[in-house]
Design goal:
Length: 190
């Protein structure tokens, strides 16, 4: 049985049994917070539980390493929409110990492109178009560095209002223990 077949079979039961009722919520976050965090699977349930969040409390945006790679990318756009359309007052950037983006081997990652059938010409075309893949794919030296990088980009964004608080935290991916790296980042830390 395929992945999609299994998922659809479960989904029919989920809907028919009205299991969704336990998750009904408003689209506006009750706690007026947005969280930029890593896509690490260990954080899927752990992070909301460690923060005492339930469905509908916060907007959660996930990407590799909780890193904003560009000030006008989709994650930043999501944060701006959350601020202006959903009343977000606090943004939490939450990295984690043991992140796969720590000291990511970009050359090794790029070599996997060819192994998976991406033609060298595609990589060369991107590079010749001014896209520095090593910079786009790079990670960071420590989760603290990554969190501060993203907090700085959010705080310094020309469209981010100064009355929005930007915080940086690190979570332990096994215990959920949180460590504050910066509270209400103003741009002078780092």
């Amino acid at each position: 049985m395929s992945l999609i077949t299994n998922l659809m079979e479960f989904n029919r039961t989920f809907v028919d049994d009205k299991q969704y009722e336990a998750y009904l919520s408003d689209k506006l976050p009750q706690k007026k917070m947005a969280i930029l965090t890593c896509m690490d699977t260990r954080l899927f349930e752990l992070l909301p539980k460690a923060l005492n969040l339930k469905n509908g409390d916060a907007k959660i945006i996930k990407n590799a390493g909780a890193i904003l790679t560009q000030p006008f990318g989709s994650a930043m756009r999501s944060l701006l929409v959350a601020v202006y359309e959903m009343g977000i007052q606090d943004i939490l950037v939450i990295g984690h110990h043991g992140c796969g983006m720590t000291n990511l081997d970009t050359k090794g990652l790029m070599s996997k492109f060819a192994e998976r059938g991406i033609p060298e010409l595609a990589v060369q075309t991107l590079e010749n178009s001014g896209i520095r893949l090593d910079k786009f794919l790079r990670g960071f030296k420590s989760p603290e560095e990554g969190v501060l990088h993203s907090a700085k980009m959010i705080r310094n964004h020309p469209l981010m209002p100064r009355d929005v608080n930007v915080h940086g935290l690190i979570i332990h991916p096994e215990t959920g223990e949180l460590e504050v790296i910066v509270e209400n980042y103003q741009g002078d830390e780092a």
